[in-house]
Amino acid sequence: MSATLLAVQTLNGLQLGVLLFLIAAGLTLVFGVMDFINLAHGVQYMLGAYLAVAAYQTTGSFWSALLLALVLSLFFGLVLEFFVFRHLYDRDHLDQVLATFGVILFLNEAVKVVWGAAPLSLPIPELLGGSIQLMENLRYPVYRIALIASGLGVAVLLYVLVTRTRIGMLVRAGATNPDIVAALGVNIRRLFMIVFGFGTMLAGFAGIMAAPILSVEPGMGDNLLILAFVVIVIGGIGSIRGAFLAALLIGLVDTLGRSLTTDVARMLLPPAAANDVGPAIASMLIYILMAGVLFFRPSGLFPAGRS
Questions:
Q1: Angle between helix 142-164 and helix 166-176 axes, rounded to 10 deg
Q2: Tens digit of each residue's pLDDT (9 = 90 or more) over 24-55
Q3: Most buried among 11, 49, 286, 296, by the most CB within 10 A?
Q4: Cα atoms in the 13 Å half-sphere on the side-chain side of 119
């Protein structure tokens, strides 16, 4: 692999890692603090993308669409929390899985009814258009660099909120021992609502930022949801730091693995066999990584109690 291709794939891996972190950060808090399995988190990512497209069609401005879609993502997340999810907090995990899977089916069909099944797109804003020279023979799109930077900025903001504010202290305590937090007089339902709404907004933000570079279509969040669960298992349930580092690790392993495994296989196998074996191994790399982490660190790399 050339240095140029390695640099491009590394940046693409960071981009994927950032998107995974934005989805997994809310998911790990919901799971860690609320002990609630929300399979519908991926459709909230999808909904954010669709809301951004609709807002752009109304306002004609990417930045207005970004702000409006964020607010609407938070609103719809709180509506779902009020009418559906809060009634499942005291139910067992099987009930939560079945109910949130039903939400996935409902919202996937709902966007088809409202926006149709054809893929949509959101234009890249003029300010972030074009590309910049990073090295000889390598120009990289400005928007993709901005996406990586925005994800890193959100990670810093989340770190400050979780480690330096009172609500962050309650979230960390809730992720470690929610029963004690409730016994101390904290309104645990309100804390759940705040965590859920914030997680929804993060997922919506990921969808908004992905909309200009990916097709906006029904079911677009389903595959990312699986990767997000892998992130929180590797990083440690309830850990923001773990979600961040695991997301970047998975993004790099997945992207670089797809580029390198076939080349490595060709060193050991005939070209025809390598072309079949390489992609098959590449698709398993992140799950092999997860199995290895679980074997040596069953609680993940950075469990919530140590974050």
A1: 80
A2: 888 887 777 677 888 888 899 999 999 999 99
A3: 49
A4: 8
